[in-house]
Amino acid sequence: MIENDSFPRVQGTSFTPEWFEKVSINTPAAERRAATLTTRRTVKKDWQAAWLARAITCIDLTTLAGDDTAGRVQRLCAKARAPLRPDLAAALGLEGITVGAVCVYPTMVPHAVKALEGSGIPVASVATGFPAGLTPLPLRLAEIRYAVDQGAAEIDIVITREHALTGNWAALYDEIAQMREACGPAHMKAILATGDLKTLTNVYCASMVAMQAGADFIKTSTGKEEVNATLPVSLTMVRALRDFRDLTGQWVGFKPAGGLKTAKDAMNWLILMKEEAGTRWMMPDLFRIGASSMLGDIERQLEHHVTGRYSAANRHALA
């Protein structure tokens, strides 16, 4: 993870329910605001290319499949090191560009660490019984420690949705705080599985609890729910980030994940960050995109910017 000296690592706070317990999110208003975000700003030509290049640096290039192998992870890491074809990178002045991180299952971490050695690209690992998070807490904490011991620099944890659905916010805080402690030096991204939380009010409250418990990032989804990252959910979480920063001075990152596949998706979420949080929250130390196929479409759009022609998608394989 890219560090910035002006931002000490998130420390969280004590459990403070008065920061969120009386909050109620107006869902129709959030949906209207989200719908207008991508129609009120246009980014074209060289600026669009620059934004897409920024998106590449924010991607957590991900493989979380049951048939993952060392070979697949190694190919993914090769793509992470060189996300653009050399001719495109040279034409755009982007030699040396890399993605933000590579995200894998815990048992794949050693393969990723070896393949990324010397690149500066961190390895992120899901943990805590991903994606359901319903294994016993001691096992979830042990899985975090295992992934860190194997070399993961970032841990994507999942919360117990039951705590959020029943309003047991103190239990959720205690659980996430223990996970943060188990992460040690590794940065922790708290996956809220927002598609399971039913209401935007629950999303806001879960976001605030995760940040109080010390999450370095809050993340929308595992990618395995029926509904994953959406703009209204992301808007709610970003406003929670702003509120937490205003209350504590601590800057927490944001990661949308699940269902983001195209260059247009990347632009939409970058616009959200620009409009709601400002330019500083568009940097990879505060913004990540969980994706796999998105990178191929971004590369295709950048080729069109350079050559004026669209190529077949299969010319931009993921790995």
UniProtKB/TrEMBL annotation:
Pfam families: DeoC. It catalyses: 2-deoxy-D-ribose 5-phosphate = D-glyceraldehyde 3-phosphate + acetaldehyde. Its EC number is 4.1.2.4. The keyword Zinc does not apply. The keyword Lyase applies. CDD domains: DeoC. Pathway: Carbohydrate degradation; 2-deoxy-D-ribose 1-phosphate degradation; D-glyceraldehyde 3-phosphate and acetaldehyde from 2-deoxy-alpha-D-ribose 1-phosphate: step 2/2. It is an enzyme of class 4 (lyase). GO terms for molecular function: deoxyribose-phosphate aldolase activity. GO terms for cellular component: cytoplasm. Gene3D superfamilies: Aldolase class I. Keywords: Lyase, Schiff base. One of its GO terms (biological process) is carbohydrate catabolic process. Belongs to the DeoC/FbaB aldolase family. DeoC type 2 subfamily. This is Deoxyribose-phosphate aldolase. It comes from Gemmobacter aquaticus. The gene is deoC.
